Amino acid sequence: MARKRTTITMEVTRFRPGEDSEPTLQSYEVPLRKEWAVLDGLNHIKDHLDGTLSYRWSCRMGICGSCGMTVNGKPQLSCATFLVDYAPGPVRVEPLRNFPVIRDLVVDISDFMTKLPKVKPWLIHEGETPEGEFLQTPQEMDEYKKYSMCINCMLCYSACPVYALEPEFLGPAAIALGQRYNLDSRDDGDRRDVLASAEGVWACTFVGECSTACPKGVDPAGAIQRYKLTAAVAALKDFLLPRGARR
Amino acid sequence: MSAYRQPVSTFWWLHQWSYLLFVLRELSSVFVAWFVVYLLLAVSAIADGPAAYQDFVAWSGGGWVLVLNVVALAFVLLHAVTWFALAPKAMVVPHVPPWVVLVGHYLAWAVLSAAVAWLVLR
Ligand code: SF4
Ligand code: FES
To answer: What are the record keywords, sorted (chain B) (predicted)?
Structure first.
């Protein structure tokens, strides 16, 4: 009987800015353990094989959203993706697609960071703010709860071909986060100018891969389609109704 | 800073089934447009009298027009099915499960098609 494999080969993207003109792959042999995520493999490399490897991580439990990488071609949280699922290997670990690579597996997400505030991801309340807690029923919370689960991991941007081809696209997570506030019973904000623009929901052609890639069940594709209907109805109202009757 | 911009491969749409489906759906708009043109041609032939209509029918039944229409039908069906699949996501009706919205769309489609068929064939 063949002996069970105890190691797996990880092919990891290496890119040193200023030195390399383009990224290359480097192979490492790491222990194959049942409880090891891809991130544990990377940590093994960093601690024991090659201290120069750069990548981001923090919580290693799917909460911080910093460990997104392309694992065998798919955007994944490397802390929630297990090596055994890729045995016998090799498993290829690359930086998230659609973002510039700063070094090795570290990408630059400043594009998202400039887009996010445009959707005003905070409560905009007209009228008096109640003293103390701003109450809401569980039903009201259910309206937007899944959109609030986003951890800004960027897997959805990495999976989105529209974002790849049109980088001006506001993108899945930013729109889902706009909807998170739009659907909040305590919010009276108007985000239409941004969300209903050509770079907003109308750029989306419903590929649906963002929702497939999302590790938190946010369903940004659903959020976008839903807002398309909202925006279309609002535009129709603008067209048909006199000013006073709108809303 | 000299960050590396990852190029988008020319064949990105072949990398994943969902990407291919998306490109095919985008392409389907061309065939939807063709059906509009075809419908206008049919209307104009009918307006020009029975002889012109017979010519139109003969032209439709032969060669490339038939092939084109079969291909166009396949694309329009793809368009309709994917469009309907999107409907429950866009229309979130309180207290109505998404599948009801989906079935509602197919029912409406069936009823409208039956009405048109009745109008034409009666
Ligand atoms: S929507 Fe999902 S995939 Fe996109 S950034 Fe948020 S958690 Fe990540
Ligand atoms: S390390 Fe925090 S989400 Fe993976």
So the answer is: Cell membrane, Membrane, Transmembrane, Transmembrane helix
